[in-house]
Amino acid sequence: MPERNDLQMPFSRLQLELDERAANGLLRKRHTLTGPQGAHVEVDGKRYISFSSNDYLGLANHPRVAAALKSGADIYGAGAGAAHLVTGHSLAHERLEEELAAFVGKPSALLFSTGFMANIGAVQALVGRGDTVYADRLNHASLNDAMLLSRATVRRYRHSDLGQLARMLGETTDGQRLVMTDAVFSMDGDRAPLPALLELCEKHDAWLLIDDAHGFGVSGERGRGSMSHFGIDHPRIIYMATLGKAAGVFGAFVAAEKVVIEALINNARGYIYTTATPPALSVALLESLVLIDEADESRAHLKALTKRLKQSLEGLKWRLMDSDTPIQPLLIGGNQETMDVSMGLRERGIWVAAIRPPTVPDGTARLRIALSAAHDFSDIEKLAKALHELAR
């Protein structure tokens, strides 16, 4: 074993990097919830109104979902025990994949453990050397990592800049083309122009991979997601959504043509070489799908909350970014000022995450206000009152 003194150099380097992060207001730290997720949470022993969760429909602690999870554990036990292609693929997984495909209007679907794994698995399985990936510059980190790991040529276009993307597509003559985009951008809350992107993909014979992590369950008819919101569908669309946000549980899925899903089963390393998710989660998610389908009133309430928030923050020196989704980012700019406002809210019993670079571009640090159907209008008024106080 090496002497502890021999390890000083690599540890010192790490500490210097952490100290630099702290000096720039970029050091990340965890906090501990001591109860269930919800609009009101207990963190580190103190109660807060939370505007920092992606639990958009309030299903993470829904009694019907929790009861289904318990029932699933009674039937299948605690874990899957193996990868899907060995002995880990249960009837609950199979049923959920069938229901998810039908829910979003695609022929077939495949479960993944996380959205990160789904994006990396899908992109690596479908494109490689000699192919080209086109990506919006504000895409989620999982899509960015996926395109780099794929070994395809990477072309990044300015956020929602269809003209630049069209020029890029026109410059490529060889290989498979894949356009990738968030449907709802997680830090800005705005929507990708999916119909126009699909039109470009049709013109240039490209696949369109849509990451609908923040649209599934919230957008579209009866929560069917962003394809439904825009009224689009096409065999060339490869659709990914996560199941730990509006669905309230855990996991992700890719929905596409059957041949695409078969290709993923055989080539997506993040699917092949990992243990399947516990089947009990799939039982809980089957109940979540029923609740999402029944949640028109909750989605209407979310829209009303969004409207009230915009009205309540009028005249504030910081501006809400342009978004009609439950993600309402308040642009502040400086890292330290953003942290100060976040801490000021925390002192008033309100938890709102401060988002800083590299998650967002330099100079655009913000509070990411995330609304849930579990909030009520008094929660909005308390947040608005606190922000106006802090602005003064």
Molecular structure report:
The structure is a single chain. This protein folds into 2 domains: 29-57 and 296-391, Alpha-Beta Complex (Aspartate Aminotransferase, domain 1), CATH 3.90.1150.10; 63-293, Type I PLP-dependent aspartate aminotransferase-like (Major domain) (Aspartate Aminotransferase, domain 2, 3-Layer(aba) Sandwich), CATH 3.40.640. Helix 4 runs parallel beside helix 12 (279-293). It contains 15 helices and 14 strands. It starts with 7 loop residues before the first helix and ends with a helix. By secondary structure, it is of the alpha/beta class. The longest helix has 17 residues, at 296-312.
Properties at a glance:
392 residues; alpha/beta; Aspartate Aminotransferase, domain 1; Aspartate Aminotransferase, domain 2; 2 domains; seven-stranded mixed beta sheet; four-stranded antiparallel beta sheet; 43% helix
